């Protein structure tokens, strides 16, 4: 089975050594990830960070998707069907479009921190809210992820849940959208069992 990993930027993914999963399958990521890790595919939909990524030269050398690519900088346009979606759901759709049959979602916390603040590994940095900001509304992400799972019904989406990951009933009711805890995921990557 072809597997891939899609990285959101919730704090739960910070305990995973990304270099350990690189040999196991392609990695798709969002927004600020490119600052400290080079995924196989990056997605950014918010115009300021998307334009910054393109002007940095990143999109000339790497696979990068955004809604409105700047001319001659190498970026790809987000697939039309997902043009209005956020970066995380788009990254999942692209991974599924690439033919991967099991897609692990890491850092898709969709909740606040333990202190009910903005949950993002890049909080307080350029293009991101301050670390003490309120959590981001995630209703649109939930609806978009559910739609992607329906569009790719033969693909298994596995959301890896850590201590800062919200339990979301709407996603648990989707047959091909599974949830495992972080410990079980680490066991899978360490042993290769059920990966």
Structural description of this entry:
Strand 7 (156-161), helix 6 and strand 8 (177-181) form a beta-alpha-beta unit. The protein has helices at 18-21, 47-55, 58-61, 87-97, 139-151, 169-172, 182-191; strands at residues 3-7, 27-30, 41-43, 64-66, 76-77, 102-106, 156-161, 177-181. It has an eight-stranded parallel sheet, with helices on both faces. The protein has 195 residues and is α/β, with parallel strands linked by helices. 28% of the residues lie in helices and 17% in strands. Helix 4 packs parallel to helix 5 (139-151). It has seven helices and eight strands, in the order βαββααββαβαβαβα. The chain has one domain (3-191): sialyltransferase cstii, chain A (Alpha-Beta Complex). It is globular, with a radius of gyration of 16 Å.
**How many separate domains make up the residues?**
1
| Structural classification | alpha/beta
| The top level CATH class name | Alpha Beta
* Main β-sheet description: 8 strands, parallel
CATH architecture: Alpha-Beta Complex
- Low-pLDDT residue spans: none
> Which fold does the CATH topology refer to?
sialyltransferase cstii, chain A
- The ordered string of helix (H) and strand (E) elements is EHEEHHEEHEHEHEH
What oligomerization state is this entry in? single chain
N-end to C-end Cα span: 9 Å
- What percent of residues adopt helix (DSSP H or I)? 25-40%
> Can you count the helices?
7
| Tally of strands | 8
């Amino acid at each position: 089975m072809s597997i891939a990993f899609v990285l959101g930027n919730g704090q739960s993914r910070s305990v995973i050594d990304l270099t350990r999963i690189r040999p196991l399958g392609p990695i798709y990521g969002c927004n600020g990830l490119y600052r400290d890790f080079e995924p196989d595919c990056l997605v950014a939909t918010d115009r300021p960070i998307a334009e910054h990524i393109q002007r940095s030269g990143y999109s000339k050398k790497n696979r990068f998707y955004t809604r409105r690519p700047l001319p001659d900088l190498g970026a790809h346009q987000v697939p039309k069907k997902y043009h209005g979606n956020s970066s995380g759901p788009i990254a999942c759709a692209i991974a599924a479009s690439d033919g991967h049959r099991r897609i692990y979602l890491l850092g898709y916390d969709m909740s606040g921190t333990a202190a009910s603040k903005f949950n993002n590994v890049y909080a307080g940095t350029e293009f991101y809210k301050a670390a003490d900001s309120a959590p981001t509304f995630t209703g649109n992400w939930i609806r978009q992820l559910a739609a992607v799972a329906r569009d790719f019904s033969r693909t298994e989406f596995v959301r890896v849940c850590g201590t800062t990951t919200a339990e979301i009933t709407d996603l648990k009711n989707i047959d091909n959208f599974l949830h495992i805890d972080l410990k079980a995921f680490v066991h899978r990557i360490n042993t290769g069992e059920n990966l």
